[in-house]
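Hey, weird one. I pasted the Multiple resistance and pH regulation protein F (MrpF / PhaF) sequence into the form twice and got a warning about non-standard characters only the second time. First submission, copied straight from the form history:
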Amino acid sequence: MAQEGFLVAGIWILLGTALMAMYRVIAGPTLPDRVVGLNTITTKIVGILTILAILWREYYLIDMAIVLLMVNSIGGLILAKHMERRGND
């Protein structure tokens, strides 16, 4: 019972810090700042999905979190490659 309270508090903390990272995505000032902010938000969403999977005993959410992490990793690599090429021109 008390553990559920800690997990719910963890969700609220992750949501709050994701909102703080949202400022970095919106305000910038550079593209790398926005990419890092977006990766941070995605990682926090994965944490929230994992906590919800434990709370609700819906373990398919963990599979969704793993897929989201893979997409986030590939997207980060693609954006890094794009920024690297753009910087060399």
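That's the output from the first submission. The warning seems to come from a hidden character in my clipboard, not from the data itself. The chain has a mean pLDDT of 91.
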